[in-house]
Amino acid sequence: xxxxxxxxxxxxxxxxxxxxxxxxxxxxxxxxxxxxxxxxxxxxxxxxxxxxxxxxxxxxxxxxxxxxxxxxxxxxxxxxxxxxxxxxxxxxxxxxxxxxxxxxxxxxxxxxxxxxxxxxxxxxxxxxxxxxxxxxxxxxxxxxxxxxxxxxxxxxxxxxxxxxxxxxxxxxxxxxxxxxxxxxxxxxxxxxxxxxxxxxxxxxxxxxxxxxxxxxxxxxxxxxxxxxxxxxxxxxx
Length: 237
Hints:
Helix content is about 15%, strand content about 40%. Strand 6 and strand 7 form a beta hairpin.
């Protein structure tokens, strides 16, 4: 279907948009989101505005924006591989309740840190308002050429999120004594288990997602609305 289309329209919540984004990027299709979910960080057209704003988009009146994606591959100790791409994030997380993981992160071959806790999130700017935000990660403007590494419930309270260039190649491994079972998730979908001796490699994907927004699109207005920031309108700049 993707190869026969000129435009992909997603009707649903942000989870539906994540699935649609991977399909759109594969076929280099622009993507429009109609929000039928609860938040709508990604799907930014309201149902009541759909008819008018879709007509505008089809007639070429839209804001075109490209956003980066992540490529992830689990390289197993026996040489096997599992690969995927994601729009929001790649997560190494524990499976067993009441246990902790021991995850080491390298950037471009240089040792960064060893995280002990519930896991580690690698997020794009788009994903910075998703799981990573609840883990204390920074909100990154969508056009920023960067990634964030966010520890999940770290055992050491000084273990804080780090923002790195998007061109970085990140390698994550789990170590014994690991108290729990680790798995890799891509945009909330399970990719593979991660065992001692395996490597998870995360880097910027070759594909990008092209989003089409209404002409009145304002990213920070969406943040103010969804996160209930402040009250009233500010003075004009």
